[in-house]
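Hi there,

I know you've been waiting on this one. I reran it after we fixed the sequence typo, so this is the corrected version. Both the input and the resulting structure follow.
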Amino acid sequence: MKIFIDPGHGGSSVGASYKGRKEQDDTLRLALKVKELLGTQKGVEVRLSRETDTNPSITKRCSQANKWGANYFLSIHRNAANKAGSASGNEIWVVRKANEKTQYKASVILASLCKTDSLKNRGVKLGAPSYDNFGVNSGTTMASALLEVGFINNEKDNRVFDEKFDEIALAIAKGIMEAHSKEFVSPEAVRGDADGDGKLTEKDALLALKMAVGHEKKDMSADVNNDGKITPEDAAEILKKSAK
């Protein structure tokens, strides 16, 4: 499964701002964390439209995802109200003529986020606030959505964003997986994951073998059979599991 994450704005496009806080910074930081989490999932590939403070055009952001053959496109943003503090919560936008499946996927991601940060669920919205569609939704050939993670000019929303940052990123990652009928497997739950990337591979088996013979510092996550030791048998079991 290929997931394309688009951190909104960047470079000369600051996005919304409030008391020195910039949307372009929050979106990039969150997108990078979501990418890291999704990257631990077996069978999931993740790309970002930008990984630094740059501003690819909307056309380029969409074409990157289209050419790659992404299965899902999520653009991450922060909202802003005309009057500071007058609005709060999360919402997600899909193309105005989105089918039920696209709307469902968006609703699952939004519900996962709102359950975690406890902010108001403002719903799945069609089109764009003052025009037909957001370009990232109309320009992509796969199901897509634009997620607004709280209001940047609301003190409470910013406090939640900062204090629950890791949980918010995890909620988005879990929501994306759930929207595609897949379970998010916590990296900590992967026994034998010697290199800590959340997946079992031949590299983990090799590391476990090196630990068993004393050529690598022992990491008990490689103790697959939970006998308190790391042995060649653990390495063999990891190799067997990685092949599944």
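Quick highlight: Residues 100-117 form the longest helix (18 residues).

Best,
R. S.
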